[in-house]
């Protein structure tokens, strides 16, 4: 039996049912939810973010929900700090943290840690850019292959911005960028971590997205966005699906029906990007929800897998 403290991840594309699975699992095992969602952090946005109900948050503790205003900027570094703090707090009180959400980036940062790299050296950066202008990107890419062949293999020869940054790190730190990345410290390896990615047939997922969109509008999405329209929205919040399309409608740039169709379309594209990210992650166990009779069956499967080695 593992002596490491448990952390369970429930991830997957938008509208797949992660929140319900996480909630039911938390009730079953005495767990608490740590949100891994880029929208549920905002206090003023409930309908657009499909936030858990007041009753659900009374029944099961939720962390990283309603923590900042739509006027505030938020990034992966802030998420990482807050999420780790929440996970530690849950463990200290003897419960199991269940990380629930669709952000593959947030998940990866939690698992593997953040690579900060060297501080920017504008003088060196300017010199590298000058070399690229005079001798071409190939010259700079060749220099990168000499200094860090492992990093060079993962970068396109024409991606000048990344080539310059990695060379900058190598030269300032006097170490290979790829070696520095390996020094990152995340949760992986220090906890007993189980990661489950929910998925289903594409047609079923798109149907769920369409129904979610209709429910959002029926629940008062337009009024919710109208209430924040006068605020100084951050660049991050203004660009979120559900907010940006309704803002376009409220400004008179499109009809309501068009805004609704745009949300459906953008959500489908977002779900596709989410799945692409998770498919690259070999630590994930996939759960096809359309192969189960009910959500309870999905929860049972996850529970049995997590505690299969517990006597």
Structural class: alpha/beta
Distance between the termini: 7 Å
Order of helices and strands: EHEHEHEHHHHHHEHHHHHEH
Average pLDDT metric: 93
Q: Quick one: overall form? A: globular
Helical residue percent band: 40-55%
CATH topology of the largest domain: Rossmann fold
Beta-sheet strand percentage? 5-15%
Please summarize what this structure is:
This protein is an alpha/beta fold and 311 residues long. 54% of the residues lie in helices and 10% in strands.
Protein architecture, described:
The chain has 311 residues and is α/β, with parallel strands linked by helices. The chain has two domains: 6-114 and 186-306, P-loop containing nucleotide triphosphate hydrolases (Rossmann fold); 122-182, Histone, subunit A (Orthogonal Bundle), CATH 1.10.20.140. It has helices at 18-29, 54-59, 76-92, 104-112, 122-135, 137-147, 149-153, 160-173, 177-182, 202-218, 221-228, 235-238, 243-250, 256-279, 295-306, and strands at 6-11, 31-35, 62-63, 96-101, 192-199, 285-288. Strands 3-2-4-1-5-6 form a six-stranded parallel sheet, with helices on both faces. Strand 2, helix 2 (54-59) and strand 3 form a beta-alpha-beta unit. Helix 11 (221-228) crosses helix 13 (243-250). The longest helix is centred in the last third of the chain and has 24 residues, at 256-279. The model has no long low-confidence stretch (mean pLDDT 93).
Protein traits:
311 residues, alpha/beta, Rossmann fold, Histone, subunit A, six-stranded parallel sheet, 15 helices, 6 strands, 54% helix
